[in-house]
Amino acid sequence: MILNGSTDYDRKAELKAFDETKTGVKGLVDAGITEVPRIFRLPTPETLISEQLGQLTLPTIDLDGINGDPVRRKEVVEKVKDALESWGFFQTVNHGIPVSVLDEMLKGVKGFYEQDTEVKKEWYTRDTTRRVLHSSNFDLYAAPVTNWRDSFYCTMAPNPPQPHELPPPCREILLEYSKQVMKLGVCLLELISEALGLDSNHLLDMGCADGVAVLGHYYPSCPQPELTIGTPNHTDNDFITILLQDHIGGLKVFYQNQWTDVPPTPGALVVNAGDYLQLITNDKFVSSQHKVVANTIGPRVSVASFFTTGLMETSKLYEPIKELLSEDNPPKYKGITIKEYVVYHMAKGLDGTSALPHFKV
């Protein structure tokens, strides 16, 4: 196996050649490749890493009855607090989004990737000013390893796109799913505010639900999944992420010094804290490392909703919440704009480290 550091290997030229096809990883699979190209190969095969996989179980939080029963709500708030202090992740059921909408959203994303190649190429771009960004690896030229994954990124709030600006295979469902996921995001941010001992509107008043981006990921089946990675270990650059995953699986969370599998649960959504939530809570809630392994049975489809204003120009500064600070718990981070964080995160790429230390006081 030729590793990325080999002297006879012009990685930059191979990245450029791959990018210029505008067909992504799916294009390689459609062409019938039987070996993983060098740009995708990990320095250490994933099988060696996966041996550390633990048998721990991600907390599942049932949101049923939280608006009608104060005792029930208090129990749920406590569970949210425990999950975000330890895992930084939880699964949620009875979240209010119908299973039919979840299924249609997954079907719409799959439909986008499986449409005619020439039609799909028209959406392929690295121009971050576009409303819909379709590419393979946002950090293609920065990351040490190319991911076995294609993605599209749609900014759905605060200024939602017009229907004609969205890809036809997932146009209607994207608009509907976004509305429903934003409603759920507001509910979760209220619970998280209460879990911090604050008024339920605190995080909403700070603007944590002002922006939402929906990412549709497509992980094609891989001939040598142990040699590559679907998404390398990383943290999310947002306040919270709401993830819809299909039945294939492959998501793993780093918890108690080991990788723990997050098997798909029909009808459930995975929720995790992002870097901004860790920053404004002064490390009370954790933005945990997670990854997605490649597989031979794909394609795997997932939909991640990021609560962030992304690259929008705004002067709003985010810093540790004053009510959470004390003499014994001084601020650990400086005030930053969301755009400042995103620019740094994108330039750094998914290199296995968090961007948070860069913004420490």
Query: What is the count of distinct domains?
Result: 1
Task: Please mark out the parts with pLDDT under 50 across 5 or more consecutive residues, or reply none.
Answer: 1-7
CATH class annotation: Mainly Beta
Could you spell the SSE succession in H and E letters? HHHEHEHHEEHHEEEEEEHEEH
Helical amount: 25-40%
CATH homologous superfamily (4th level) name: B-lactam Antibiotic, Isopenicillin N Synthase, Chain
CATH topology: Jelly Rolls
Distance between the termini: 43 Å
Number of helices: 10
Mean pLDDT: 94
The gyration radius over C-alpha positions equals 20 Å
Count of distinct strands: 12
Described by the principal axes of the CA atoms, the overall outline is globular
Percent of residues in beta strands? 15-25%
Please state the structural category. alpha+beta
Strand order of the largest sheet: 1-2-10-7-12-5-4-3
Any idea what the CATH architecture is?
Sandwich
Q: How is the main sheet built?
A: 8 strands, mixed
Description of the structure:
This protein has one domain: B-lactam Antibiotic, Isopenicillin N Synthase, Chain (Jelly Rolls, Sandwich). It contains 10 helices and 12 strands. The chain has helices at 11-21, 24-30, 46-50, 70-86, 99-113, 117-121, 171-195, 202-205, 275-280, 338-348; strands at residues 60-62, 89-93, 132-135, 150-157, 212-219, 231-234, 240-245, 251-255, 258-261, 269-273, 290-292, 300-307. The strands form 2 sheets. The chain has an 8-stranded mixed beta sheet with strand order 1-2-10-7-12-5-4-3. Helix 4 links the parallel strand 1 (60-62) and strand 2. It starts with 10 loop residues before the first helix and ends in a 13-residue tail after the last helix.
